[in-house]
Design a protein that fits this description.
With 134 residues, this protein is α+β, with helices and mostly antiparallel strands. Helix content is 22%, strand content 35%.
């Protein structure tokens, strides 16, 4: 069911410093910050030859990334995102096998302008998984 790895998301306490590290130290192609108010984050994509890194920074007081950073002061890997061909069919299959979908269970539009869902980390070895329709 899952396809290509779309990105690995890293929560960061200082977005500018993280962007600078990837740009100057690693020589990566770092995109511009983009606010995603529906998700409570500011994101920056780092383009790699085979995938992307997504830097996440809190947007607003109720940001889930703010809560993550409260527990992880230095930041860290927040989630991995896999592509799926049909997000509704994938959701329905996952629910039928006992997986839990976070939120309402209805896809939201993600940072790439495509429908996304998040899967409960307890069902996947403590890892938060995002599914994005390809």
């Amino acid at each position: 069911m899952i396809g290509r790895l779309n990105h690995v998301a890293i929560a960061v306490p200082d977005l500018e410093a993280a962007m600078q590290s990837y740009s100057s130290m690693l020589g990566a192609n770092v995109g511009a910050p983009q606010d995603e108010p529906d998700h409570g984050v500011t994101v920056v994509f780092i383009e790699l030859p085979n995938t992307k890194i997504e830097l996440l920074y809190p947007l607003g007081e109720n940001s889930p990334i703010g809560k993550f950073l409260d527990k992880n002061k230095n930041g860290g890997i927040h989630h991995v995102c896999y592509e799926v061909d049909d997000i509704i069919a994938s959701r329905d299959h996952l629910v039928s096998t006992g997986a839990r979908i976070l939120g309402t269970g209805e896809p939201k539009i993600g940072a790439h302008g495509k429908p996304v869902l998040f899967l409960h980390p307890a069902d996947f070895n403590g890892s938060l998984i995002e599914l994005e329709q390809a």
